[in-house]
Amino acid sequence: MGAWSIYFLLKFGLHLSGLIELALLANVALALLLSWPWPGGLHRLLRWLAVPAGAALLYRESPWPPLSRLWDNWQAVSDFSLAYLFELGTRFVNAPMLAALLVAGVVLSGLATRLRLSTWVFVGLAVFALLPSPAQRARDEQLAQAVSVDGAGMGPIDLERLDLTLQAFHDGERAKTLKFPVDAGPPPFDLVILSVCSLSWDDLDHAKLTDAPFMRRFDVVFDRFNSGATYSGPAVLRLLHANCGQVPQSELYGGARGECLLMRSLEQAGYQPAVLLNHDGRFDGFADTLKRDSALPSLPEQVLDAPVAMNGFDGSAIRDDGEVLGRWWRARAEAAGPGRLALLYNTISLHDGNRVPGIASISSLDTYAPRARKLFADLERFVDGIERSGRPTVVVLAPEHGAAVRGDAQQVAGLRELPTRVITHVPAGVMLLNFGVKRAADAPPVHVTQNASYQSLFAVVAGLLHGGPEVTQPERLVELGMALPPIEWVSENDRHIYLQRGPYGYLRTPEGRWSLMTAQP
Length: 521
What we know:
CATH superfamily of the largest domain: Alkaline Phosphatase, subunit A
Strand content: 5-15%
Helix content: 40-55%
Number of helices: 20
Strand order of the largest sheet: 4-3-7-1-8-9-2-10
Number of strands: 14
CATH architecture of the largest domain: 3-Layer(aba) Sandwich
Shape: elongated
Radius of gyration: 26 Å
Distance between the termini: 47 Å
CATH class of the largest domain: Alpha Beta
Number of domains: 2
């Protein structure tokens, strides 16, 4: 087997370290192919052919996304700047691991002159065939711990029944429709919806902003809000279809039912609706998708005279949030007069790969916290301006998805291929400005503690429209929050689906296979 023995033994080390999941049968087949006494010419040919096969096998055993995903999204990936592509590449490289592999390779090369390493390869394969993998043992231990803290005594769902569970969830969600008032006179307040890309509770914790002044201003906080998506397009479509329940991602495209469209309902309720971006909306056809699949009357707007704060992962200009919001709001409020505005503002200031002028040499992971602090300061300044104007306004925070700044055992930092809870568990809330009664600084907000998503969030807005000013009283907000029904925790992208119930999480692969994993809090 020669030098190939070192390949297998190094992979054993990676497997024991939990860095890869050894594909046992494929490795046995490759080892047999390389150790079999083939005729000379055929033996040399097979050893050369084994090089790409061994590399492909190692890649498949790694936690990296399949190469097919890269080819499927090549048009979007080709728009990435060279700086961002280089940064992404470095995240897949673990310098200490490479150094350890180099040292181990040198040691094994020395031992190869004294020991028959191929024998140890087959011994190792036999041992791994008899014992559960380290990753499986870790999952079993975490699952046992989850079971021990499951106060409800809820057991895991049979994997064979999960498709039925998912189907029942979607059938129930399709039947839900949220009603806004129609022709009931001018709305009593303006509405501002902040759609923030790349902001989860885990990201907030990383940036030490969980208790930031801006977050403390919300009167209703959704503790277990699920954005349902890991990418911007489907996340904002879910928001713009918030009148209806959570449908499969594929049903977001091609035209939703009219009663599902949020901006159309707000217009019928008397609002002047608008969508505003701090970016050009061109990447992956974002702006066109919103117009086509959410029945927007026109393409999203931009404030092109606002200063550029940073450049995106594709090199495009990202404008200063405070200036974009402040300039647009002042101009539209003056033009609207007593009319009421309904603004959806989408910002990508926290997106992975953004470059801030003057610190281009620093990784976008390193700049996430200062970018988040800048965004929160801009939003705080914007909210202060609304308060000074005296216009009654409801501010809704509805982030698209997290940035995965810290990564996890399944994915490197910034990767969002698996729609796990750490990515879709985002901070959502409702803020009431200029309603006459202001919550005391030391008074806690109303916390909605059950699972919730976009329809739950806008049910609060609809309740405020239907109920009038008295609904803003703390006790009425508590009643409104408690009346919201909980939903299943289901999040997805175009390849994977994640379902959580109690302490159990389940992931479905593109091939339709479910696996049990430990749910995240």
